Every structure is written in structure tokens, then in C-alpha cells.
Amino acid sequence: MKIEFDQLRAGTVHFRLVEEEDAAFICGLRNNPVLNKHISQSSAVVDEQRAWIKTYKNRENLGQEYYFIICRNDNNLPVGTIRLYDFQHNPKKSFCWGSWILNENKPRFAAIESALLVYKFAFEQLKFEQSHFDVRKENTGVHNFHMRLGAQHIDGNELDNFYIYPSSKYYEILNEYQKFLG
Ligand SMILES: CC(C)(COP(=O)(O)OP(=O)(O)OC[C@H]1O[C@@H](n2cnc3c(N)ncnc32)[C@H](O)[C@@H]1OP(=O)(O)O)[C@@H](O)C(=O)NCCC(=O)NCCS
Q1: 143-157 burial: b if 16+ Cβ within 10 Å, else e
Q2: Is 119 within 8 Å of 178 (Cβ atoms)?
Q3: 181 lines ligand 1 (CB under 6 A)
Q4: Whose CA is nearest to atom 15 of ligand 1?
Q5: CATH number of the domain at 5-181, please?
Q6: Which atom in ligand 1 lies closest to the alpha carbon of residue 100?
Q7: Where do the TM regions start and end (predicted)?
Q8: Average pLDDT over residues 31-58
Q9: With a 6 A CB cut-off, is 102 part of the ligand 1 pocket?
């Protein structure tokens, strides 16, 4: 699928696809003790991260997964990551998103802009009907973020809360949130 990148640009940040050269940046983010309290562990070895990206690129070519670097619009510097994966087709066309991390150089509204860009890409370009995702129970800030945007908290276990976000909700809030998309 040809991605329309001009559509993946919000008020202060935009997305570009992850490349092998981003391995060191991703290692730095994922091994930052301030940022990695509520995400799954990944290797701090740059060459292992590079190898992971290489196999991811095969999935990207097949349209099975998309891993983006979130960059500032003013200087193009990378400030974070976000990933769409676990594409399901039954009973609904649904995707999971995660690997969502923003560093201290993020513009103030990078979080809301990047979440909106994920939904915009998934619902408008990839034609998904719904998103499913999970958040660590102790990650209350991110729980509140999703609830504020209209996610449905559907279930939980000892470790995680589970949510869905239907495309209809995205189209419902779009007018109010258009200002973040620029
Ligand atoms: C998750 C993460 C990317 C979120 O970014 P963040 O900048 O902390 O997000 P915030 O909820 O503070 O939102 C940023 C701004 O957008 C605003 N905002 C958030 N949701 C909004 C909404 N629905 N409408 C309007 N504004 C909104 C916030 O109020 C905040 O602005 P403020 O600083 O003036 O209060 C970041 O905290 C992070 O990298 N965390 C570590 C990794 C992690 O836990 N990832 C998630 C795993 S599930």
C-alpha cells in the first residue's frame, strides 16, 4: 500500500517510517528509565534493535505492520515512536497500536497529535473499523488520555487494561480535534 505521508502531518509533529538507522534512537528511548516504566522490555543492544527493524521491514512491505518515528515539524528531529500491529480481520477489521513513546524534546501537544494521526492513518487510509489496545494498569496518565479521547475500557487483567476505539468515535470527535491536525 502506498502511504499518503502528507496526511500524516499534524500541527507540530509528523510521521516517517522507521529505518535501520533509527536503531540507536529507539534503544535510547526504550532504555530511558523515565520513559520505560510501563512498556515491554527490549534489547539495549543497537545491533539487535537494527536486526529487529530489518525483519519488521518485511512485515511493513507486506502491509502487516507500520512503525513510525514521530518527528518535530520545525526541525524534523525525532522525538518518539508509535506502531500499528496485530492486524485482525474477524469479526472486525481491527488493529492494535503501541510502542508509543515521546521524549523530552516533544512539542506540548505531540501526544494528542500522534494519537490522532494513528487513527487518521488506520481509519482513513487503511480502512480499519476499530482499534484494540492495552495499557499497564499503573499507567494511569495514559489510561486518562485514552478515556478523554473517547476510548471504551472493555476489560482488564492483573497487569493490563484493555480498550477499543471504534472508527465511528474518531469520525465523531474529528471536528472538535481538527485544530490539532493543523
Ligand atoms: C505516553 C506518552 C507518549 C504520552 O505523552 P504525554 O506528553 O505524556 O501526554 P499527555 O497526556 O501529557 O498529553 C500532552 C498534552 O496534550 C493534552 N491532551 C491530552 N489529551 C487531550 C485531549 N483529549 N484533548 C485536548 N488536549 C489533550 C494534555 O493536557 C497535555 O497538555 P498539558 O501539558 O497542557 O496538560 C508519554 O507519556 C510517554 O512517552 N510515556 C512513556 C511511555 C509509555 O508509557 N507509553 C504508553 C504505553 S501504553
Answers
A1: bebbeebebeeeeee
A2: no
A3: no
A4: 109
A5: 3.40.630.30
A6: 45
A7: none
A8: 95
A9: yes
